[in-house]
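Posting this for the archive.
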Amino acid sequence: MGNADFPPLQPMSKEEAEALHRMFGDGGFYTGFKAEDDLPIRRILVSVAEKEGVVEFINTFKPFIPEVISTGGTFDRLTAGGIDAWPLERVARTGQMLGDRVKTLQVDIAAPVLADKTDKEHMKDLYRLRLESKRDIRPIDLIVVNLYKFEEFLAGLQAKMEKEGRAELTEEERKKLTSLIDIGGPTLLRGGAKNFHSVAVVSSPRQYQKVAAEAKQLEGKLSVKLREELSLEAFERTAQYDTAIAAAKKAFKGQLSRSF
């Protein structure tokens, strides 16, 4: 079905606009928010491969009572650490599927990440999405994502193969290497990095300390200066990650494309 098959969104009536403001209030609609403003962290999306330190980091924001949304093993780690996290299904119509290959690749997550908080039309679209989905969809303020450990596994695998004097991957190694090509994580990082005026994006545990320090200093907010810095670092991280994947594809040309 192409775009032409869908009717255009109709202008929002006064009644709908009033309902939107009642639904979101200043806490979600960001009435009067400007791109250069310090950003209140009210909703956090967390999905990390490296879980060390994540509970302590998220607890930094606890005094400011944010909502925390998480996936899979990260959700288990957060709740075990005493954080009142929500599962993905509370804010998205589709949970994890395809053997966990699909988690966050859906409009109910992408729209709150990419919504420009200074654009009232974006906020209206989110409200419509909320009504349609019957899920608690609101703008996301902070994305905490670190990627599957592809580079770490690849380095160990290449060292092992060199020691064993072989160039062919085993079936198990092909499966593992392919499974570690993260798709949803880089998508969230790039989306948040693109939209840094409206979203802060944390792409490495090494950033926890500086982000936590500013959140404490600004009472649960993050400055646009830090958000832009984090944006650059997120793009650098995804570029580094893709470079490693391309190098693996080149080193094992023809092997990763085999069916398994």
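The radius of gyration is 20 Å. Residues 35-147+183-228 form a domain with the Rossmann fold fold (CATH 3.40.50.1380).
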